[in-house]
Amino acid sequence: MGIYILRRLALIIPTLVGIMLLNFIIVQAAPGGPVEQLIAEMEGHGGSALARAGGGDTGGEVATGSSDSRGSRGLPPELLQEIEAMYGFDKPAHERFLMMLKDYATFDFGESFFRDRTVIELIIDKMPVSISLGLWSTLIIYLISIPLGIRKAVSDGSRFDVWTSSAIVVGYAIPGFLFAILLIVLFAGGSYFDWFPLRGLTSADFEQMTWYQKIGDYFWHLALPVTANVIGGFATLTLLTKNSFLDEIGKQYVVTARAKGLEEKQVLYGHVFRNAMLIVIASLPGVLVSLFFTGSLLIEVIFSLDGLGLLGFEAALNRDYPVIFGTLYIFTLMGLVLKLISDITYVLVDPRIDFESREGA
Fold first, then answer.
1. Which whole-number Å values give the CA distances from 59 to 31, 88, 166, 185, in the listed order?
2. pLDDT tens for residues 22-49?
3. Taking every annotated instance into account, which residue ranges of this chain make up the domain ABC transmembrane type-1 (predicted)?
4. Burial call 205-230: b when 16+ CB within 10 Å, e when fewer
5. Contacts of 104 (CB under 8 A, 6+ apart)
6. What domains can be seen in the chain, in order of their start residue?
7. pTM to 2 decimals?
8. Residue 139 to residues 186, 245, 283, 321: CA-CA distances in angstroms?
9. From residue 108, how far is each of 23, 71, 74, 120, 143 by CA, in Å?
């Protein structure tokens, strides 16, 4: 297992480089950029933009932009060169990419073009919101889906199985952001009740609260966004758990265990559970990455939660390339590490799995 882990860790490097290169090329081809935005701003709001243009290098080693846009006509060539140097556009694309890889190897992501803060500071500042949403949503999804999926497998075809399947299909068919809007209308002062807050992760007077009041306030603010996340996420895992258990229940070793006189609980949780959970464990990295960084984007916007999803979305709109590439690098790295952890968990759940022998086969 140790050799397999080392191999997987070594593969993380070329995988990261490949993903960053692909996205770098896509960004190069995308129209617009911070240079064009600054030029347009200079033509419309001369004073502030000229001050920014003289502000020096802001860490734009990964961006692209052309000074030949229509907005650049009539501007002095020296000023255009200064703007390009400010964002790092005065170097060829391959040099910018190599410099980016060198800096990212030491987790130096540079500074945001438009926020006057380093990328790592922005990520650390936004991380608590995304972790709160993703962690609690994932925990609740698994606490609901696994027992429900097992119960549906045991009572396959019963009334309970039918009506829960209907409820799951309805919940899955409603997008999470629509359910979030419904929750706001019903419970956050929309048209009916005003039981929950609409904005933020904590109240304005959070620092003056006692420790138990802080805990209550924290979960009070999380109640609606986490509920919206859970509704859209538990359906797939529930059906996956059910089908996995049904597949295992029909196998010969289960028939043999029952023939030996073992109780049904011993058969389910002593024999079936370990094998059936393998496919559920395999889906954990994808669920975590999705809920942490992508699935909660609209939820963050709707509930005014300033997390990583909203940060990445705004960076893409503003062509804030250091933030785009910095968050992409961290998200990709975390996804690859979580996938490796998932494989290690496979072995912990079922020691019969040997990835090293499979790779050598």
1. 21, 7, 53, 43
2. 888 887 776 666 666 666 666 654 444 4
3. 127-342
4. eeeeeeeeeeeebeeebbbbbbbbbb
5. 20, 325, 326, 329
6. 2-119 (no CATH), 121-318 (1.10.3720.10)
7. 0.71
8. 25, 21, 14, 33
9. 18, 32, 36, 8, 38
